[in-house]
Design brief:
2 copies of one chain form a homodimer. Chain A is of the alpha+beta class. The first copy, chain A, contains 2 helices and 5 strands; from the N terminus they run ββαββαβ. In chain A, the strands form 2 sheets. In chain A, strands 1-2 form a two-stranded antiparallel ribbon. In chain A, strands 4-5 form a two-stranded antiparallel ribbon. At the A-B interface, helix 1, strand 3, helix 2 and strand 5 of A face helix 1, strand 3, helix 2 and strand 5 of B. Strand 3 of chain A pairs parallel with strand 5 (about 80-90) of chain B, so a sheet runs across the interface.
Chain lengths: ~90, ~90
């Protein structure tokens, strides 16, 4: 992609990446609650032992950890989302 | 909650839990792709070292791991969801 020999990337690879992306029927915003001002909400978690339960419904009051709100969301919206449970196994 | 002295739980605590739950404006199904037949999609992951990047947009082709599809989803829907990155730190 070059203009007059100058390699110009599209404004944002996000937009470029989206050009060929067709949203699924019913696909809309997932995050209605968490850090809405942030361009992208990614979380880094370090673990050395034990188990943590992480939210994937974007509605938890203890985000990024799960607080069970997905049960209410699923019942209200006919969804089936649940958490990610990560356990550290000592080698 | 009892009927003729017999303690009967509501059909499903999910429905009971949802009775007081008011979905946010725009809150609809999040999962349009993954194990749609399952009543609830929870994933258990064991880690002993290293780093894993987990999907939270429910659109990854490598679910429960992230494959970057959230970038296309965010651009198409004006969302800002991103992955969970878990790193195991040796004690």
């Amino acid at each position: 992609f070059s203009v007059m020999g100058v390699n110009t990337r599209p404004i944002s690879t996000q937009l470029h990446a989206a050009a060929d992306y067709v949203p699924k029927e019913g696909e809309g915003k997932i995050n209605l609650l968490i850090d809405l001002e942030s361009p992208k909400v990614a979380n880094m978690e370090e673990m050395s032992s034990g188990k943590k339960v992480f939210c994937r419904c974007w509605l938890s009051g203890t985000f990024p950890l799960c607080d069970g709100t997905h049960v209410k969301h699923n019942a209200a919206c006919g969804d089936n989302v649940g958490p990610l449970i990560v356990t550290v196994k000592s080698e």
